[in-house]
Design a protein that fits this description.
324 residues; rod-shaped; four-stranded antiparallel beta sheet; Endonuclease I-creI; alpha+beta; binds zinc ion
Length: 324
């Protein structure tokens, strides 16, 4: 393997690493050995076969130098190819800002065509991914090539952007063998295999080998759920406080009406006691008023008395404005 003009774009990779997806990819790229000889091929198929075909003699293009180098090393490990990484020329537009892989050797080119042509690739994916280690390597390559996962604190979403429907279906079926149930949709003539279920996303990250990422995902999910629960509790408290204020407001209106029309002596001693407690503690809850009244009375007992006061006030209102 030879490298040409191999100056990495640090700013670009630093930016990618700051995203959740970028951190997952960094973790996956640190896995530098394969469990079995088939794993190296599986990784390369995942990496190469689900990307759009690229022009000229290049076999693949990567968004970062590190990924291009990893692809070159993996192809060397899998098939012994001599791979050249070609860096983008200065001043190129973003779409051309990729690191391309080139095979120099004619034998390698022929072998690559035989092994990685569409039909052979599909045969490999359907026949040779039986072992867990190989499937894990395949999914790792695949995610590095065309995967994205959103920060779980924002949204539960992981997707693979496949070049066409045939590849999208192939991937969906492969994932089904591991009991994953992704969705499949089209976007700008590409096929998107996606997950919205947070547990499946965690399992998939673990299967790919991103154990730390899966842990970070779980923690972010727990934090989000705790925050949501706290918000619900605050909303519930606010609603309860408002209910208490509204009820107390109505009770005060009733008591003041009776006070004005008849005086509080118009009430029997139990009701008068309740009315005075409410007048003295306009913001208290029923429970707090029970305490004020000595604690012998239950909330429902006190509520019963306040309802009676309310009915007396209503009858006084009716006397004032009799219904015709
Ligand atoms: Zn394997």
């Amino acid at each position: 393997m030879t490298l040409q003009n191999n100056r990495p774009k640090r700013t670009q990779s630093a930016k990618a690493a700051s995203t959740f997806s970028g951190r997952i990819k960094q973790e996956l790229m640190k896995i530098d050995s394969f469990s079995c000889p088939d794993c190296a091929f599986a990784f390369c198929y995942g990496l190469l076969c689900f990307s759009p075909r690229i022009k000229k003699n290049y076999i693949w293009s990567a968004s970062s130098h590190a990924l291009a180098e990893l692809a070159a090393q993996s192809l060397a490990a899998a098939a012994g190819y001599i791979v050249t990484v070609v860096s983008p020329k200065q001043g190129k537009s973003n779409s051309e800002h990729t690191y391309r892989l080139l095979l120099q050797n004619a034998e390698d080119k022929l072998d690559f065509q035989t092994r990685f042509l569409q039909l052979s690739a599909e045969r490999f994916c359907t026949q040779k991914l039986g072992k867990h280690c190989c499937m894990s390597a395949f999914l790792r390559g695949l995610f590095l090539s065309c995967g994205t996962v959103m920060d779980p604190s924002r949204q539960y979403h992981l997707e693979f952007l496949c070049p066409n429907t045939v590849r999208g279906m192939l991937l969906k079926n492969l994932l089904a063998t591991l009991h994953f149930t992704p969705g499949l949709t089209e976007r700008k003539q590409q096929s998107v295999v996606y997950f919205k279920d947070s547990e499946q996303i965690e399992d998939l990250l673990t299967t790919m080998g991103a154990g730390l990422g899966a842990m970070e995902y779980m923690n972010a999910k727990i934090e989000k759920e705790v925050r949501n629960q706290a918000n619900r509790a605050v909303n519930c408290d606010t609603a309860n406080i408002q209910k208490i204020i509204n009820a107390a407001g109505r009770q005060l209106e009733d008591i003041r009406l009776i006070q004005k029309k008849k005086g509080l002596d118009y009430l029997n001693s139990d009701l008068r006691q309740a009315a005075l407690a409410r007048l003295e503690h306009p913001d208290s809850s029923l429970g707090e008023l029970c305490q004020v009244l000595g604690g012998d009375l239950t909330r429902s007992g006190l509520n019963h008395r306040l309802q009676k006061i309310s009915r007396i006030a209503d009858s006084l209102r009716e006397d004032e404005n009799p219904r015709v």
